[in-house]
Amino acid sequence: MILTGQLDSPFVRRVAIALQIYGLPFEHNVISAYDDFDELLALNPLGKVPALRLDDGRVIADSTLILDYLDRVAGQENALLPDDASVRAGLLAHMGVAVGLAEKAVEFRTETVRRPSDKVDQPRVGRILAQIVSALDWLEERTPQEGFVSGDGIGHADIASAVAMTFIAGKNPEHLEARRGDCQNGFKKLKAHAACCEMMDAFRAVPFPPA
Ligand SMILES: N[C@@H](CCC(=O)N[C@@H](CS)C(=O)NCC(=O)O)C(=O)O
User: Fold this and answer.
1) 50 Cβ closer than 6 Å to some ligand 1 atom
2) What are the phi and psi torsion angles at 25 (to 5°)?
3) pTM over cut 0.90
């Protein structure tokens, strides 16, 4: 298997971390979604990362779809989402907000860093910021004081939350400042949960690159 994409992408990173946890060997093709666009388009018709090339040549894109496949390769015992529909529903909801938060954090940078400053659409940026704060609030409320969101062991919901938090802390830490009473405690549980995950071997093996 070959995983394409850089580890500064929270989506590539959540797949790389899961691969470490499963203990599945993979090659890492570190190309940029922007600077190596032609190479990426040849691999994934959407020109996006992550993309996972299977040994038979098929390519799966989108981190959640890749992880759905990998959970099945790893087998029921090692899957990072439980099978029980009711438990799974709660964790899918958590994972959905965490992955969506990462998407909004990336979109914020696309709107503010990649656009010429006189072309920035401020109302759109304001909407993205509101979505980021709302998602952070939602996740903070549902993150335990200690341990994992997924129960006894780490799961996809935990990984998605931790990589989103690390991305935001690395790129736009101002999002994490409590403001307007949105979150009085400064997202303390979310930060502690991410810090705890980042200390695990699977996270340290595929670290978020320093700026
Ligand atoms: N929902 C997707 C998001 C993937 C995504 O947005 N990747 C970014 C890099 S962080 C990308 O490839 N952007 C290039 C583009 O959209 O043109 C996933 O979970 O894989």
Assistant:
1) yes
2) -70, 145
3) yes
How far is ligand 1, taken at its centre, from the CA of residue 50, in Å? 7
What does the pLDDT look like over 138-186, one tens digit per residue? Answer: 999 999 999 999 999 999 999 999 999 999 999 999 999 866 555 567 8
Domains recognised in the chain with CATH numbers: 2-74 (3.40.30.10), 85-201 (1.20.1050.10)
**Mind listing the pLDDT tens digit for each residue in 114-125?**
899 999 999 999
Q: Is the Cβ–Cβ distance between 14 and 63 less than 8 Å?
A: yes
DSSP code of 4?
E
Q: How far is the CA of 49 from the centre of ligand 1 (A)?
A: 5
The reply to whether ligand 1 has any atom less than 6 angstroms from the CB of 29 is no
